[in-house]
Amino acid sequence: MGLNSVRASPRRSLERSRESVPTGMRASAASLAEILRYIVLTIFLIYCILPAIWMLAAITKDSGQIFTTFGFWFANPPHFFENVIDLFAFRGGIFVRWFGNSLLYAGLISLGSTLICALGGYAFAKYDFPGKHFLFNFILGAIMVPSTALVLPLFLMLYRLGMVNTIWGVILPSLVNPFGLYLMRVFWDASFPNDLIEAARLDGAGELRIFWRLGMPLMQTGLVTVALLSFVGAWNNFFLPLIVLSQDELYPLTLGLNVWNSVSNAGVGAKPSYHLIALGSFISVLPLIAAFILLGKYWRSGLTTGATK
Amino acid sequence: MRYHKTALLFLTPFLTVFAAFYLAPVFYAIYLSLFIRKRIGIGPPKEIFGGLENYVRAVQDSDFLNGLKNIFLFGIVQVPVMLGLAILIALLLDQSRGLFSRICRTVYFLPYTIPTAIGGLIWGYMYSRHLSPFNQILNGLHLGTIDFLSPAVLLFSIGNIVTWTWTGYNMITLFAALQNIPKDIFEAARVDGATTWNIVRYIKIPLVIPTLQLCLIFSVIGTSQLFTEAFVMRPLGYVADNITPNLYLYLTAARDANYAYAGALAILMAVVIFALSGAFLRRIGSR
Question: Could you tell me which residues are beta bridge partners of residue B37?
Fold first, then answer.
């Protein structure tokens, strides 16, 4: 070291300053790359909201304008409020009923599924038992079974049990959430140190108490993430209600709007036109978007934890 | 870690629902698929034990095979395009900061939150002849129109919907992985004189490959189960019954009431997907 290091440092600091201030060719290359980056990101931004733009434009139009005016721009004067009234009045307010159904199903499924996944995930994360490894992989392997392999025989089973066309036929099967179990296990591993558990056991606390009083409060991020993902999945559920429900008062929004769509195109009877279906679709996605934006910090960090394990 | 009995207690709720609503239907499907409908003498056809006859019929069924072919096409075109886009956007976002970056991250994720049934509906409207704003634009520029729902273009149209829905989700997962790379690696690389492109090529991409593989598996599994997008577009235009295996399966059961055959198709699909995923996992495990 000694003399050499003294001579080395001024040169290196000069190099570093040259690097950090882009000049000439390097500067224009850097800013060109930056401009390109913004362009690409903005194009993708527009692509993502394209259907939303169409939807927002469509809900301001009446039944004729939707065919005649430009798809991506609004009607003038806008018919938004008339459309809202038409939508809610249609067939005695069945849209509101459908909205309530979606809320009910998604809410119960989300709560129930999160709870049983939290319990199960805790077992896999904090206990050892024979067959643990095999069982976990078996459950995860279940994700690979296509849902259609299940839903049709499920329907026949439910039929035998008299559960078709009931809310339980939709709710109970949806409680199964292998991915939620996996996430919960990851979160338990990350959030609940074993020393805490050992200390509590030494103090004589029971296992259930440790889980509920000590563990669960530490799991906020995990619980919210799984609950949110579960809520989204349940809200968007289409195939199961399609098979199980035949009474339109029990339909969730996804099913109801699509039934309107098929009726609308078959040209039979009183049919809500495209602009109302667009409005209904818009309203049906609002709760999810609100939930994601409001709970953003939870699921963002949650997905990060899940992605790295 | 001991306490076997307590562990089982915690697992009971999950396992009960799992066994009742996941395992039982699968076994029931296998059981059902072993029956076929045959006319025995006079009278309506009866369900009799047919062994594997449904399966034999399924592997020769041109409709089913057509669906599988479409899934395969999806797998080699749509999935790479989507994941390529996802990693590109993730890398670009990784270098961005500030409000624009945050807006992008939220907006890119939103299509995933929209129910597939609704997204397919809206895109269907944007594709349909009467309503399509794309055709309005093309017409305005005197470039003719594209029939997005014609048999030739339909698969691309459906592919577009899937890409639109899932790119953001995959992108966020990859982005999270990128953000988790320790910053010291980048500093060390810069001191060694690495350019941005070098860093991307030799550090970021290799470290992100495990996550990418996970995304790939889930994408393949999702692709094989394609149903909703095709189904909700049926009222808007002609969609072939056999365009995806799941659609064909559904119609076999719901419209033709041939539950046994539908069951066989479903089990076959499950086996195919299992095999594919298994092959992928083995390749990953060997790395």
Answer: B47
